[in-house]
Protein: ComF family protein
Amino acid sequence: MTNRELYGIGSRTDILHRNVSKFFARWFGPAHVDCPMCGRRCRDGVRTGADLVLCGRCYADIPWIERPQCETCGRSAHCPDCRRGIPRRFVCNRAAVRYSPEMKRWLARYKFRGDERLAALFGWMLKIAFERHYAGLDVSAVAFVPVGAERLLERGFDQTERMAAWFARSAGLPLVSLLVRVRDVGKQSVRTRRERLAVVGGRFAARPDVVLGDRTTSKTRPAVLLVDDVYTTGSTLDECAAAIRARWAVDVYGLTWAR
Ligand SMILES: [Zn+2]
Ligand SMILES: [Zn+2]
Structure:
């Protein structure tokens, strides 16, 4: 028989018990949790998405991009890539973190080791980047760069879609699947003029069946936020933006996890 049963809820013993528990929770809690990145047991971690707790050391390793040096791609350092003046069909890109060796390990763990629950961590990081770099942007929809059918089969899930979904949900924005990989569409189905137009994006095509809702009330074009894991040369984001804009009258803003 427990103390509660013996003395009844609300008795002095019960109140004492609760106060003692509170005392211990305050000074010795919360309970230890395992850091999803390094596996260390910790209780001083940082709570991220879906109650994943990063240990203090792993959190300190995150090379956040707080002030981008390049207005185009959101890079944190001098950017010779964008200075060459290659025309881009997206407005700009912003990224959560620098693609440091540590971040490469994190992404590999998420993508190749199939650690699917890490989507919440990456989505949480995207949300921080969104609030930091795109405050005030009236976003109509969140889209993502789709994984190819083969990779999807290999990994079992679309890692970019999952992190985008987590981010969109936590930011209260609608997630829409706007793009397909041209290779996956097959030549037969890319027939109509409209669909051919949508393939101006090179490797990507707009989905012919999607109607893009408009949440904005202003006269400016609606903004679509396009999520990808890593911005390397910008060509993927550019091709996707071209495919989207060939079909819908929107402006495309990139939001990548790393740059
Ligand atoms: Zn850790
Ligand atoms: Zn740049």
About this structure: The first strand starts at residue 33 and ends at 34. The radius of gyration is 23 Å.
